[in-house]
Structure formats: C-alpha cells, structure tokens
C-alpha cells in the first residue's frame, strides 16, 4: 500500500516566496531575459556547457534571481542531455523556489520514467510548505500507478483549488483508468462542467483499454448527440472498441464518418482502421486500405501480415514479408511471431529455420513470446529436438512456453517425455493452465497411461481449480478408446456436464474402427450425424468400419446415402516444403509443373511396394468402380503425390515432411510405412490428429491414430 501523502499545507512566511525576487521586478523591461547567460542557456546543448553558464551566473550574482535559477533547473530536468541529479542539487540552493521550478523537476522524473521519484519529490515539496499549482498535478497523475495514492493526489488537487481545471480532470481520468478504476474515471467525467473533445476521447479510450467496448461505443454515440466533433484520438479509441467488440457495422460507419467529414486518413488512423477490420474478420477491406497507403510504417506491415495469418492465408503473409523486405524495412519481434505462426501451419520447417537465423542476424531479442513461437514452430513441424534446444536456451519461460513443448512431445507420440517436461514445470513453480492439461492428457493417451491420465484429469479441479472443458473430455475419451476401453469411454461421455461435440464423438468412432466395435461405432455415428447430418467425414469413417469388418452391403448403403444426399468427403490437401517453397497437392492433382515426373515416381512407388508385400486397401474407395480404377484412385491421394514429389526433389537420406489437413487414411498410412523402408527415407506426416514418424517400415503412432 502506498504511504499516505501529507495533507497539511503551510503557507509561505512572506510574499517573496510566491513572487519574483527583488531583482526580477525589472523583468517587465526584460533585462534578465536578455542577459548573456540567459541567451547562452537557449543554445546550451549539454551539461558541461550548462555548468559553465551556472558558474558564470553565480559569479555575477545572477543566480539569486528566481527566473534565472528556474532556467537552469528546467534545462537539467527536461532536456534529454540534462541531469535530474544536478537539478536537485541546484534546487537545494534556491531560497524561494517557485511552483514552476518544482513542476520542472516533477515533469523531469515523469518524462524519464521515474514515477516514484516524482511522487517522493512532491511529498518533500508539501513538507516544505510549497504550494502546488494546476501544472503540478498532471505530471503527478501520469506518474501514479497506485489507486490509493492516486485518490490522495485527487484530494490534494481539490484542497489546493485546482481540481476543476479541465486539463487536470483529463489527466485524472487517465490516471484512474491506468489504475483500473473505471468507476472513478467515470465519476470525474460525469462531474465535468465542460467536456472537451480530449475528455470524451480519454473516457472512450479508458473503456476500450479495459475491454468494455459496449460502453465505449455508447459514449461515442453520446458524444455525437452533444454535437461534439471527434478528433483523431477519439476515432482511434472508437476503432479499438469496435475491434474488441467485433462490431464490423460500427467500424464501417466510422470509416464512412471519416470520409464524409473530410478527416485526413493519416497513418495512425488508417492503421487503427486496418487493425479493426482484421479483428472483425474483414480482411479484404483491411488489405484495400493497406494497398492505398502511400507510406507504410512497420506497424502497418505487422498488422497486415498478422491479418493474413488470422485469415489462414499463410502464403500471402510470407509474400507480404518479402515485399516488406524489398522496401528496406527490418522486421521486429511482432513480425517474426506472425511469420513463425504461418510456418507452423504450413509445416514449413526450412523457412522457419531461416527465420530463426534472421532473428539471430538482426539481433532481435528473443523474449518469452518470440521464444515460445519458435518452440511451437519447431515442435509442430516435427523437429522436437530443435524445439527442446530453443526451450533450454530461453532465460525466461512462461506457462505458454512449457505448454508448447508438452503439446509438441504429445503430438509426436512422445507421451512419457511430455509428462517428464510437465513434472519439471511443476517443480519450477509454473502453474499449468487449461491448455497445458490438454497436452498432458494427450500425452497420457499416446503413451497408454490410463491411470496417470485419470490422476491428472482429477488434479485439474482438485489442485488447480480448473474445470475440465470439452477438449479435456475429448482427450480422456481418446485415451480410453486407444486402450480399448470403449464402454468406459461411452460412460464418460454420458456423464459429461456438457453435450459431446464432433471432437469427442469422432475420437470414439475412431477407436471403434481400430478395435472393430461395430455396435459402439453405430451409436457414435448416429450421434455425430445428429450434430452434423451433412458431414461427409462421419459417413466415410463408418463406411470404412463396415468394409474392414467385411460388411459390404452396409458399406455400400452408406455410399448410396452419400450419393442421394450429395454429401461429399471434405477435400484432402497435403503440403510439402522443398528448398523454402511450400507446394500444395490435392487428390489427383495434375497442376504441378513437374506432374509428369511425379506420376512416373508414383508408378515406380506402386511397383516397388507391391514387390515387398503392399496390398492397396480398396475399401477406402467410396464409390463403385472396377478394381483397377479403385487402385488408381488410391495411388493419387494427396499425401502420396506430396511424398512422390519429395522423393524426386530431395537428396537421398533427407527426411520428407508432409502436412495434411485431414486424418491420414488407412491405405496411405500403410503405403507410407512401406515407402519409408523401400526408399530408406524418414517420412514425417502431420495430419489433423498427430504426427506420424515413418521409419524402416513402422510408424510412431503404432497404427493407432
């Protein structure tokens, strides 16, 4: 708690303490202001020169003049080359310091980010019986970060009769806002007799700052009702509120208001509008504004790059970064976090490595946020060793950093290592959050540690006060399903405090496929189709379960239903990065410039795989066609095309990394195991559920995914 400020006030013993000295009575005729020492002060550029001028003032007797002394203090306190320490020494030599002199020192501490010293000096000032004026309190309010102390200063401003000053009231509102007391800020605003545009902007900004966008927008409408024309700051604050409220309609209205009222679209205002459009999901309008800007600063580029990442347009985000580089702008931490996120989604490990080297080359500080982004990128691109290395080199880690590595190990099928990191996290004193436990439970699932999974699930609420969400229940269902406890998984679903979603029921259906539990599969499928009758993935998985159990009529019936209802399987898409370029493939893709070579490699793959025992799983083909057509369709799946491209584009021994948007089908999974052995390649596939590390004919998932 802040120490109480002194409320007593001693008036000066003589009028001379609040008025110019005898020597300054001639200032109306400007003899002091035109003195050579004063004129030299105007040109002074450093403390060495200042000290020489100060010495000359003392020698000539000029320093005893309060005006002259105030000029010395003002330079020391307010100039970038000044010295507050010297200002304080000078202050002790002034017999009758004026409020201007005191205010200069307080402002100096505030400007140089020494708020405690500003408050302490004010206390000394009051103890000495010096009187603050209306210029004293704005700097004090800016320095104040403690609510109780701020309220005491508010009382002082009232006691000294300056609380009704509009500038003081505006800074007072800002102080209360920064201290988190919107109620107090609102009271000051409501009691103002006259509100300037700055007053409205300050209060609107306070609501926007503390995630109260509805109140901010209501206040803006009230401002319009009182015919108060907003300034740039007001509009920026309103756009911030629109962004937080995701109020696209209001954002467009503000855009029209700016245009109709002839307000200049300066960089700050345009950037705020761009940011608002991005946060409201209207990326096309944001890009339109961006492209029209004659001059763009780094902040503009960062907003637009991040906007494309938020829009899942990762390639465009990377392309925009290249354009930014050509303009001669250097990236900062914000840029790099967005770009690393793009690489994470694309599975672009080589590009991510290049960005890591660029971070080191440009001496960009790797703080907790950027370090976590690097850990996450490496982990989700399948390079868990590099993720661990970055993690170990970080001087500071927060819960998100630990979680990124835990989730990374879990996705890579390294459940026991993930739990080892979790236990280390607990020993370090970092408190896990809800996302951490998603990784922990996934790790237990992949490692088959059912008892440990239950223990961690219970500890969420018992030890950490975290109520399990549907994601946590989904992990538990997946864990039980992997272990073959289908009945227990169904029982857990029935006991959930919320209805199951597609993730939960889909995990159960996948477990039924692995363990051949048709009855439970049909129950799960019925629930899934009630949630989403048009989801082709459910039909496909159920059809595959029937086929695997040789229930051909049932499988055919499912396919016929899909045809009758025009239900299609979600299109599969696979990405592969070669030489820093990400290539995208879909099923049967012929658009690639090296298609002829890719399909030649496919033929070679099929021939060589069959020679060592590979048998295509034709039950994966949904629609009626002859056996040769089914086999041909299977060979053209997107991940096989990506792998074929990787084989013809990389040197022997280089790992092939593929990212797929859907779950890997059984045939592709089987074929990739054979490919890894026949071609002696390590193949890493990241599908919707997890990583598959194929090597020497086996997969890290142990055929459960």
UniProtKB/TrEMBL annotation:
<feature type="compositionally biased region" description="Polar residues">
    <location>
        <begin position="12"/>
        <end position="31"/>
    </location>
</feature>
<protein>
    <recommendedName>
        <fullName>DYW domain-containing protein</fullName>
    </recommendedName>
</protein>
<dbReference type="InterPro" id="IPR011990">
    <property type="entry name" value="TPR-like_helical_dom_sf"/>
</dbReference>
<keyword id="KW-0677">Repeat</keyword>
<dbReference type="InterPro" id="IPR046849">
    <property type="entry name" value="E2_motif"/>
</dbReference>
<dbReference type="GO" id="GO:0031425">
    <property type="term" value="P:chloroplast RNA processing"/>
</dbReference>
<dbReference type="GO" id="GO:0009451">
    <property type="term" value="P:RNA modification"/>
</dbReference>
<feature type="repeat" description="PPR">
    <location>
        <begin position="398"/>
        <end position="432"/>
    </location>
</feature>
<dbReference type="Pfam" id="PF20430">
    <property type="entry name" value="Eplus_motif"/>
</dbReference>
<dbReference type="GO" id="GO:0008270">
    <property type="term" value="F:zinc ion binding"/>
</dbReference>
<dbReference type="Pfam" id="PF14432">
    <property type="entry name" value="DYW_deaminase"/>
</dbReference>
<feature type="repeat" description="PPR">
    <location>
        <begin position="367"/>
        <end position="397"/>
    </location>
</feature>
<feature type="domain" description="DYW">
    <location>
        <begin position="613"/>
        <end position="705"/>
    </location>
</feature>
<feature type="region of interest" description="Disordered">
    <location>
        <begin position="1"/>
        <end position="31"/>
    </location>
</feature>
<feature type="repeat" description="PPR">
    <location>
        <begin position="196"/>
        <end position="230"/>
    </location>
</feature>
<dbReference type="GO" id="GO:0003723">
    <property type="term" value="F:RNA binding"/>
</dbReference>
<feature type="repeat" description="PPR">
    <location>
        <begin position="297"/>
        <end position="331"/>
    </location>
</feature>
<dbReference type="InterPro" id="IPR032867">
    <property type="entry name" value="DYW_dom"/>
</dbReference>
<dbReference type="InterPro" id="IPR046960">
    <property type="entry name" value="PPR_At4g14850-like_plant"/>
</dbReference>
<dbReference type="InterPro" id="IPR046848">
    <property type="entry name" value="E_motif"/>
</dbReference>
<dbReference type="Pfam" id="PF20431">
    <property type="entry name" value="E_motif"/>
</dbReference>
<dbReference type="InterPro" id="IPR002885">
    <property type="entry name" value="PPR_rpt"/>
</dbReference>
<feature type="repeat" description="PPR">
    <location>
        <begin position="266"/>
        <end position="296"/>
    </location>
</feature>
<dbReference type="Pfam" id="PF13812">
    <property type="entry name" value="PPR_3"/>
</dbReference>
<dbReference type="Pfam" id="PF01535">
    <property type="entry name" value="PPR"/>
</dbReference>
<dbReference type="Pfam" id="PF13041">
    <property type="entry name" value="PPR_2"/>
</dbReference>
<feature type="repeat" description="PPR">
    <location>
        <begin position="98"/>
        <end position="132"/>
    </location>
</feature>
